[in-house]
Amino acid sequence: MVEMNVESRPISAKEDIIPSFETFQTTRIEHLYGTREPTVISQALLRAAVYAQGPKEEAGTIARVEGIEYNGVKQLALNFQNILRISNLDDFVSLTKLQLDNNIIEKIENLEGLVNLTWLGNPAGMEPIYQMYVCAFLSKLEYLDYKRIREDMNCWLLFPATYREKLQDTCRMIFQFGLEEYQKRTVEEACLRDSLREVKAADRKSGMKLISEFLDYKQHVLQRLDAISDAQTSIIEEVMSNYREKIHELWEQLMSNEMVIAEQLEEVCKEFERNIRDMLGYFLENCQNYMAKCREAAANFHERLVEATLPYAERLAKSDPNDTEQLLFPDRETMGNCLSQSKDNQVLRIDQCEEWIIKRANAWCENLIASLQKEEVMQRHTNRVTEINLFIDSQRTELDSFDLSTI
User: Fold this and answer.
1) Helices 130-137 and 233-317 meet at what angle, rounded to 10?
2) Are 199 and 261 in contact (CB under 8 A)?
C-alpha cells in the first residue's frame, strides 16, 4: 500500500477571523461556571454558531473558506451564551428552529417566523403566562421548549380570531333573520295589495251595474218621450221629473257605496299598519339582542386583551428607557387608556350599526304606511268621488239641455 503524505494547508486570513467550533463550545462551558459577562448576539457569535453546526473536517474547511449564507440557515443554537437581548437575526430569513435556552433574555422580539423555539432558563420564561405570551407573539410557532404546542397553549392567539368569528356569526344571523322577516313583511304587504285590488274591483263592478241600470232607464225614458205627443205637456214634465229624481238616486247610491268602501279600506290599512309595526318591532327586538351579543363579545375580547397586555406593559416599564416599544407605551396607564379607547371605538361602531338598522327599518315602515294612506285611502277616495260627480253632472247637464220641442 502506498502511503500518501499530505502537507497541511496554511490557514487563510478569512478562516482566521472565524471562531472555531471548539472556541464556541468553550464559551458555553465558561458560562456554566459563571465566568462570562452578559453579551449580545454579535456577528462573531453568529458566525461561530453557524460554523459550529456546519460540516466538519475538509467539508467544514471549504465551508469556512467559501462562507455560509445566513438566509439559508434553518436552525441555530445559541444556548449557554449569557445573551441579554435578541438582535442581528434579520439575515436569517429561513430560520425556523432556534435554541436560546439558558441565557438571560428578558424580552421576546424579532422571532416572528419561528416554528421551533427553545427558551428554558431565561428570565422571561419564569412568568406564569410565559407559554401563552410566547404563542401570542409568535403565531407560526409549533414547538416550544421541546414540546408541541397544544391548542390551549395557543389560546391567546385565538382571542382576535374568536372575536372576529363571533361578530361574523352574529352578523350572518342578523342578515338571515332580517331576510326571513323581510319575506314575512313582503307576504303581508302582498296580501294587503291583493285584498285592496279585490275590494276595488268589486266596488267598480257594483258601480258599473248601477250605471248600466241607469242607462237602461235613460234609454226607456227617451223612447217613452218619443211616443208622447207634444200636447201631453204634463206627462212629459212628469217623466222628466222622475228622470231627474233617478239621477239623484244614482248619485246617492254611488256615493253611499264609496263611503262604505272608503271606510273599509281605511280600516284594512290600519289593521295592516298594526300588523306590520308588530312584525317590525319583533325584528328590531331580536336585532338588539344580536347587537348585545356583539357588545358581549367585544367586552370579552377587551378583558382578555387587558389580561395579556398589561403584564407586558409592566415588564416594558422595567426595560431600557430608549426602547422604541417603551416610547410607544411609556406606562401602564397609557396602555390601559389605549385599550379602553379601543373598546369604546368597538362599542361605538356596534351602536352605530344598531342605530342604522333601527333608523332604516322605521323609515321603511313609515314610508310604506304613508304611501298606503295616500294612494289607497285618500287619493283613491278623491278620484272616485270626482269620477262620480263628473258622471252625475254630465247627466244633469244633458237633462237641462233637452229641447222638448225636438222630442
Assistant:
1) 120
2) yes
Domain boundary among the residues 98, 131, 153 is at 153
Residue matched to cell numbers 304611501: 371
Write down the pTM of the prediction.
0.55
Residues 217 and 104 in one domain: no
Task: Write b or e for each residue in 245-271: b if 16 or more Cβ atoms lie within 10 A of its Cβ, otherwise e.
Answer: ebbeebbebbeebbeebbeebeebbee
- Residues composing the chain: 407
Place of cell 415588564: 315
What residues form DSSP beta bridges with 77? 99
C-alpha cell at 52: 459550529
Q: Identify residue 122 by its one-letter amino acid code.
A: N
Same domain, 162 and 56: no
Residues 375 and 388 in one domain: yes
Query: Per residue in 232-241, pLDDT tens?
Result: 677 778 888 8
Which of these ranges, 48-62, 136-150, 275-289, 326-340, has the smallest mean pLDDT? 136-150
Residues 294-343: tens digit of each pLDDT: 898 888 888 887 877 777 666 666 666 555 555 555 567 777 787 888 88
Q: Domain residues for 33?
A: 13-153
Nearest-CA neighbor of 356 among 274, 296, 288, 297? Answer: 288
Grid cell at residue 211: 250605471
Q: Output the pLDDT for position 76.
A: 82
Sequence letter at residue 129:
I
